[in-house]
Fold this sequence. Notes:
It is built from 4 helices and 23 strands. By secondary structure, it is mainly beta.
Amino acid sequence: MAIAAAITLPLTTPSRRFLASASANPIRFSSPLTAQPKYLKIAAGRGTQCPNFRICAASSMRIEAPEKGSPDSFLDRKESDILHFVKYHGLGNDFILVDNRDTTEPKVSPDQAVKLCDRNFGIGADGVIFAMPGVNGTDYTMRIFNSDGSEPEMCGNGIRCLAKFIAELENSRGKQSFTIHTGAGLIVPEIQEDGKVRVDMGEPILKATDVPTKLPPNKDQSVVKARLDVDGSAWNVTCVSMGNPHCVTFGTSQSQDLQVDELNLSDIGPKFEHHVMFPARTNTEFVQVFSPTHLKMRVWERGAGATLACGTGACAVVVAAVLEDRAARRCTVDLPGGPLDIEWSEKDNHIYMTGPAEVVFYGSVPL
């Protein structure tokens, strides 16, 4: 798959009419500092014809669309061999969002997703997310391919990005919610007045065989603060599923106070992910406790590696912290990309996650 994309960076709050045409005249920037955009060409494509990305950027706080060009929305363009996308991020966990509402089959294959997600030879992302028709009465269906081509059940940061993307597709504003069918079940994100997205993530799954993990249950049917031998060390782990599997650790049997910034994540992370005790592989969260309401984590994501944020992981961390009597049911969880507010409600046993989702740029790529 050759990749050649025209990419536009929004420097103001985005709207669905942001870009009249991906292939028309360049965006005009108006700024007291500069009137000329800068162009950066990036070679892309592994083993393919060398394409280029055009990224338009300037020190502008206002962007005007071309005076001449198609009045059609960028996202409404339907060329059969061109993929129009919007790149979003949730605390640095970044995704390529695709309008897939007209078909129940993803417009991008897993192999194409790998190439698109490549940060040197593609667009660069942790995954590709598809906004698809709803099923069983839901508004939409979410599917996602990771940067390695695997398909996870759901993604917490991704669902917030999808909610903002759907609002843009529907050209809607203000507080609103959507029902979204995912591989982890029904998820309901709600866009708040301040632009953040609050997501009802449902109930955590604690039964060991459902996480799944082969570690023997040690608290009812759950695995809580159990021993897991990894790379010659005995780690204490709690296993939680948020529709996808998580292994949460606050340290080893020798060191209970984990200093997460000192971890060599690229070395230890894969050893957890592919551990024999996790038949579906696992996401792994390494956690440092500052106070009962303030936690810090680093994550090694199944299929994506080290990322700046993981929403389902932050939810799993609070559940594990409560089960191990380390934290309260509502916490701020610091991730490398920023904080998330996580609440495990006693009222309905649901996890509620609140955090941002932002547009990075709009683009087109031939498939």
